[in-house]
Amino acid sequence: MNHSRIPGRRAALAVAGAVVLTTASLTLQSAQAAPVPHSAAELASARAELNAHAAVPGTAWAVDPRIGKLVVTVDSTVKGARLDQVRKAVADLGDKATIKRTAGVLRPFVAGGDAIWGSGVRCSLGFNVTKDGQPYFLTAGHCGKASGDWSDSQLGGVIGSTEAAEFPGHDYALVRYTGSADHPSSVDLYDGGQQSIAKAGEARVGENVRRSGSTTQVHDGQVTALNVTVNYQEGQVDGLIGTNVCAEPGDSGGALFDGDTALGLTSGGSGDCSSGGETFFQPVPAALQATGAQLP
């Protein structure tokens, strides 16, 4: 693991490391024609059919509001009988879904950010929160599954312990501070400043957003889809936010935000910040509700 790009200790940063889908761009294709007028109920039924018949590792799907149908992305590992299975499931949905191949591979990496170090893994903090009046922080669930204790420096003292982690299914973890560490409600902007975080909110398609991560620091983009399903090798993750913000290994678990509003925790993505790509995020409101925590 190359640590040369990791900056020194920063208090309570919103950066992170772990799952990154190393695929060619998954950016949903545009269309000139008007969207097909499928109802929400029809598309929900179509998603259920995909869950039942196409949920094999190496696939992802979401409704593209620009074309009014589900776009099913299939990576290069899906071959033979599994590819036939996915193609049949999509074909059975008629004009409610379309299939798209990507040359890359959807696979997880436990790499990392600079904020927290676990047992053999390096991840980073997403947002500082409180629960029952005590300080906690949110990070990616795959990080919480990988380690029970966390430090803010390599081989440093323990500053927090994982209290709850969900992955797959969802991708969030709640870590309780057990040692002395600053925990302001803010995100590192990597220019000497921080963005204060006052609340959590639901992302909207078309919303302009920012992502902070230790590998590629701060990048901007837009929300492209909601309720995205991604099938990692470890299992399916549902309800993610899709964006065209770039990310690279080591950015996962970090903060997606719009001004002072916390939106998501980086779960995975495709491409890189040279050629572009897409990144998926665990919504923060759902993580707060599940863990009983609150912002700030």
UniProtKB/TrEMBL annotation:
Which InterPro entries does the record match to this protein?
A: Pept_S1_alpha_lytic, Pept_S1A_streptogrisin, Peptidase_S1_PA, Peptidase_S1_PA_chymotrypsin, TAT_signal, Trypsin_dom, TRYPSIN_HIS, TRYPSIN_SER
Q: Which UniProt keywords apply?
A: Disulfide bond, Hydrolase, Protease, Serine protease, Signal, Zymogen
The Peptidase S1 domain covers: 136-287
What residue range is the signal peptide?
A: 1-33
- Domain (Peptidase S1A alpha-lytic prodomain): residue spans on this chain: 38-92
User: Does this UniProt record's set of keywords contain Disulfide bond?
Assistant: yes
UniProt KW Ribosomal protein keyword: no
Entries under Pfam families matching the protein: Pro_Al_protease, Trypsin
Q: Which CDD domains does the entry link to?
A: alphaLP-like (cd21112)
Query: Which family does this protein fall into?
Result: Belongs to the peptidase S1 family.
Q: Any idea what this protein is called?
A: S1 family peptidase
